[in-house]
From TrEMBL:
It comes from Rufibacter sediminis. It comes from the Bacteria. Signal peptide: none annotated. InterPro entries: SPL. PANTHER family: SPORE PHOTOPRODUCT LYASE, SPORE PHOTOPRODUCT LYASE-RELATED. This is Radical SAM protein.
Amino acid sequence: MEAVQEIEYTKPVKPSKLWMPKQVLITPAALQEPWGQQMYERVQALGLPVQELKSNRLTGLRGEDERETYRNAKSTLAIVTAPPSALKLQPIPPSADYQFHLAEGCPAHCQYCYLAGSLQGPPVIRAFANLPTILNNLVNYRKPNEVTTFEASCYTDPLGIEHLTGSLSETIRFFGEQENMHLRWVSKFDQVDGLLSVPHHGHTQPRISLNADFISRRMEGGTASLEARLAAIRKLAMPQLLGGGGYKVGLVIAPIMPIPDWEEQYTHLLDRLAQTLDFPCEFTFELISHRFTPGSKALLQEWYPNTSIDFDESTRSMKFNKFGGKKYVYTAATMQQLRSFFYSELNRRFPAAPILYWT
Ligand code: SF4
């Protein structure tokens, strides 16, 4: 009982609502995978309607317009097999050596969503049924005699769908058994209780994405509240002896935006973080400023016509990515102002916590 009391948060925090899709589709190929069967049983046990598809292609998700397509897709979970191309891993600097995917798509509704324009077709949430194949393939990418890091949240929020898939805890368990292979993932959700007792052996770094309360409330629909995310990071970082996960955690502050009272807003966030991690634990920071591309802006404005995100190109600097695509970032002067605020405030409050990068 003492352990439970130790982990109790300073004030009661309402956990976020679990996402429940309106429909679940499962392909014939996914049904043949034991992990697909496991997901099928999970969603059935939750009372969700499951439709067994006749073919491995997802069809019929398009609505009359982009918004209806968005609504249909974002309320659908499809259990599918990842294509063979998913087994050819791509590097993902500065976050990790390689990215791999447990799923594609995310049930949240962030008005700046990083996925807008990067995934093909309607934004349906696809969970991969061939998980053992995906995990066993990672071993082929392990570097000799040094730790190789793998990022699992480039195309999804793996914690937001964990109650439907179980794939994140299975992946943490898998990495716990591997030498020199570390897992990284990031989330805006808070349902971490099921991850606290998974034998991770220090090979997983969970990160929670945080932002100013104003941005979380206005622009991150369907995610856990800031207070719920702080409670989650506390549980993950708390030593196992005290009932926590004993993970070395990470804080991703993103996307940083110079909203009118940004200094006050971000100061409040860092104050709350210091109160949250008020016990000895290890953690790192990653700092990401807001950016957009012409394609992501067009799609996001269709999805969220009343968005409060500042998409004005005239106040931005244009950059080219390595494939020649345009992206809009803040001007050098704004970047410098934001960057020096975060570096000085973080170094002052958390001198032992490395800042892995600013971008
Ligand atoms: S949590 Fe991430 S992936 Fe999901 S909607 Fe928000 S930005 Fe997009």
